[in-house]
Amino acid sequence: MSTASLGTALVTGASSGIGATYADRLAKRGYDLVLVARDATRLQALADRLAEETGVKVSVLPADLTDRADVRNVEKRLREDTAISLLVNNAGIGPKGKLVDDDIDYLETMIELNVVAANRLAIAAAQAFAGRGRGAIVNIASVVAYIPERFNGTYSATKAFVLNLTQAIHSEVAEKGVRVQAVMPGLTRTEIFERVGRSFDDLPPSMVMDVNDMVDAALSGFDQGELITIPSLPDRGDLDAATAARFALGPNLSRDKPAARYGVVNAG
């Protein structure tokens, strides 16, 4: 793909961490950028730096994606700006601790950002891109979608939502020229822990990936056409086996009678 044909990438949560790293890498690939985040000052500083270093066009769209009016402003840009060819749906927040100890209002805010906003923007992009016959959506999920028993339940549920949404969108838009990818990071060294009063120093270093490595691996997965990318997974066959096992359940997920093992003899 030539630089001229790349178009514009809209990146949410772009002021720091994974989003800022994606912005850097995509600018170096030749994408123009629309950067979305709450912190307008930090966002503008990043935009100015990337424009100077790479020569691409970078605009900022300050937005609080827990505010539904702001989400609709970003949606409007996705739908109306026909230069946008890539959405990196990254904005999100993490948990403060265990579910039973967490602030329920904070958890509701998490759902507003990680689910409601992510859902609306992904669907808006899917509809817009399908109509144009081109485009790509990168949804940032998390490996905790696969291991909810080991992490905050609300957070892992939000990331399972993002994973399921990505797979479902792919099934509808793949034949319409739209690429979709779910990126499933493990622990990644960003500010997300600091923002909820935690520290990576409390975790085994062997479990925490540098954000640059994570994004570079995710982009390699994107280039390889992966629907689901787990940057730390050594053997792709493990994921393929898990997917095959899930599909094997299909024929028995909905039947007219309960399974015999339940001993229901008069089921209508």
Automatic annotation (TrEMBL):
Key word Metal-binding present: no
UniProt keyword list: Oxidoreductase
Domain of life: Bacteria
GO terms of molecular function: oxidoreductase activity
InterPro entries named among the record's database cross-references: NAD(P)-bd_dom_sf, Sc_DH/Rdtase_CS, SDR_fam
UniProt entry tagged with the keyword Lipid biosynthesis: no
Similarity section: Belongs to the short-chain dehydrogenases/reductases (SDR) family.
Protein name from the UniProt record: SDR family oxidoreductase
Organism (species): Rhizobium metallidurans
